[in-house]
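Hi F.,

I've been meaning to write this up properly since the lab meeting, where we talked about keeping a consistent format for the predictions we share between groups. The idea is simple: the sequence comes first, exactly as it goes in, then the structure tokens exactly as they come out, then a line or two of notes. No screenshots and no reformatting. I'm using this chain as the first example so we have something concrete to point to.
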Amino acid sequence: MKLSSLSLESLLWTLRSLRLDEMIPTERAIMSRMKEAFEFKPSPIQWDNLLDACKGFYQEKHHHTKSAPAEKQGIDFSIFMHQQGDSEPLFTTDQIPEFIIRDINDPVTGQDTHAIFPKGEEWESVDHLIKGGDVIHIKQTKEWQNFVEFLERYFSSAGPKIDESTAIPGGRYGCAQFLKLCAPTLQSSSLGKLSYMVQLAIDEDLLRYQRTLLVWTPVTTKKNYEEDNANKLRAVQLAVVEVLKENRGGISLAQLPLYLKRKLSFHLDLQELGFSKLKDLLLTIPNVEIVLKGTNHPFAIWKPSKKKTISDTEEVSKSMDEILHDCKQGLPGSRVEMMLYAKFGHPIN
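Output, unedited:
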């Protein structure tokens, strides 16, 4: 069905669709569903007028189109229902639908917004719990088991490596739609509950974003990925120490990535290593300080520790054995020195 105008009836239709999917009817969710189901995107002015109408203003100016099916007729609208019976207009000019508007915080964006319910038809949504962890204990249900088993089977065709050819587009909601349509054991699950399970899987690193796509991360892949990132982080920390020791006057944070590029054998991706900014990574390295030169020019500088060096030769020897265990051909002394520094937090003589 395609709409060419906005009405209280089309709003009621949309809200009942969201109710069937156990989704909270925020302004964002309502407009998204209208675009998805009716190919109609309200303009800001149209939406403001609709909110005014819901609050009881301009009712005498509001003209109604064909209405949503009445609940008492046993018909509800859902974007996953392929057959809709014909119905007569539900409302006359004396029977305008009423709505309840509540001020809430959008659980996805974190912004203040409105939730709109048909009067007398408020419902408990599932998707508004997506940031709270497994508060409904879904992981103890057969539904969660079906969810995990389907994704494991689906992604197993790509083998042990992450393969973008099987990645799921559309983020959390797109993945929920995919499961609703393609997983036989989950077709009775609501979109709201599927969105909740997808977010829980993301939080627990079963699903992972690869750019805008979602991919499955089996245990073996995840372990290798984490080990690889840990090794990269150590290499970056050591490279920072090397660069700053070679430039005792300090280096601008804007120029530091260029120096690190010459030292590293891989591309430096801060997000991959778990940092949003270079400054955050530098704060994990002992004896590296960030100072301001001028009004707004942060520099990283190396400040040797004033602590006493370690004299416990047994502890140092044990650490050196651990470092050299996987390096049968040995390592340069300077490299071992820096790795010991990274472990103990100060120089080793």
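Notes:
The longest helix spans residues 219-246.
DSSP finds eleven helices and seven strands in the chain.

If this format works for you, I'll send the rest the same way.

G.
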